[in-house]
Write a structure and sequence with these properties.
Length: about 130
């Protein structure tokens, strides 16, 4: 039962932080298209690991530094929007799973058949 509660809290934190990230004034953060891919909160609700993915971002380390500097403000705003006893401390991490998935998909599109002679075999139709 508790894991279901943590899952709901994770989803609510993800939703609220997604809307709050649009209001961050730090140019390292506001210049990138950010997506929060996953939130993982500890069972005591003291810490939340926020996994973000950035499109067309050249300086990921600068982006993480910008998010870390805005974490206090984000935590304060999150505490006003979500009714929890403790507002978790936010820790940001880069998530490259979207880029990794796109790379694998691109590789699959360029795969050639293992035996080119069998590539043109037509199976007989069932009668």
């Amino acid at each position: 039962m508790a894991s279901n509660r943590i899952g709901r809290i994770n989803e609510e934190i993800r939703k609220e932080l997604s809307s709050l990230l649009r209001n961050v004034k730090d140019p390292r953060v506001s210049g990138a298209m950010l997506t929060i891919t996953h939130v993982d909160t500890t069972s005591d609700l003291r810490y939340a690991r926020i996994y973000v993915s950035a499109l067309q971002c050249d300086d990921e380390k600068g982006l993480l530094r910008g998010l870390k500097s805005a974490a206090g403000w984000l935590r304060h705003e999150l505490g006003g929007r979500i009714d929890l006893r403790y507002t978790p401390e936010l820790q940001f991490f880069m998530d490259d799973s979207i880029a990794h998935g796109a790379h694998i998909l691109d590789m699959l599109h360029h795969v050639k058949p293992a035996n080119p002679a069998n590539a043109d075999i037509v199976l007989p139709e069932d009668e």
